[in-house]
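Hello,

Our lab assistant flagged a job as stuck in the queue for most of the afternoon. It eventually completed. Since we weren't sure the result was trustworthy after the delay, we are filing this so someone can double-check. Below is the sequence as submitted and the structure that was eventually returned. Let us know if re-running is recommended.
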Amino acid sequence: MLFLNQWRLALLFVISGMGTYYALTKRSAIQFAIERHKRLLIPLIVGMIFVVPPQVYFERLDKGQFSGSYFDFWPKEAFIGSYPEGNISWHHLWFILYLLIFSMVMLPAFLYLRKHPEAWLIRKLKAIVSKAFGFYIFIIPLFLWQLFLAPYFPQTNGLINDWYNLVNYCTFFFFGYLLISLKDSFWDAVTKNRLKFLISGIIGFPLLMCLWYVIGDFPFKGEVQALVKVFNAWSWILTLIGYAAIYLNKPSKIVAYGNEAVYPFYILHQTIIIALGYYLKYVDIGFFPKFSIMVIGTFTITWVIYEFGIRRYSIIRPLFGMKPKNKNKADI
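-- returned structure --
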């Protein structure tokens, strides 16, 4: 979890920025804004009404703050007050809300770049990324956010005063759009240097763990940790994009299926995890059996709900951000 948490959400925002580039090539600004609200706001609302409440319910049961069946809790108690004191929450769906906000806030910049494909920034970045480690110029703002925002605005995912989270992930989102705007210069460079990025990540993560858990205090340790943290995260993001461009950039039924399923899976998965975790918490069967049940169970139950309860029904698909059945490419 320590390894994945350094870059998994940042990667999602980078990919979302890339998808935004392609979405804007086919839509006007107004069409894009309408489409974003359909595919982000509707699933957010549906998720807050139907997907998130079970998570709060199991938490209230576990803490002794509620007793009774789920249907005693929903809808009677589920929509009273804001979480954590109350029960209304978006929980893991903060990603969707933030993505919607970023899409609208950054739209003027994206429209400018679309209209000016040879803008100075694009031309300069094409020259920079052509060098072996040119991509690492992108970690400069990430380092500054880590240094000057993260210590003062801890991540809450609650929108209000969540400044580090907002600025940091909006930067990753913008980077995704910017990288795709470089077109062949980006793809050539990220695939050519993918092994260098992989080695950088292999070095970066253990170094970060040593700084966190092994090495004692020394002058400017905070600054060094911040630099290594963003270096490690960016290295793994570039590594995954570089290798995916080589090995996944071809027709594949599995990739096409996964591309369509990923959004509903994201919306559903945490509720399944919490439900399984609640019932497994006090079962005395050991760590690895519990872990196996959690992983296999979460995937299987989520897939069953997706495949037999969402994917096949035109009336349900938009509630989970899916396109009509004749359109299979996701671009969030």
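-- support follow-up --
The delay was a queue issue, not a problem with the job. The result is valid. Confidence is low (pLDDT under 50) at residues 328-332. The CA atoms of residues 269 and 299 lie 8 Å apart.
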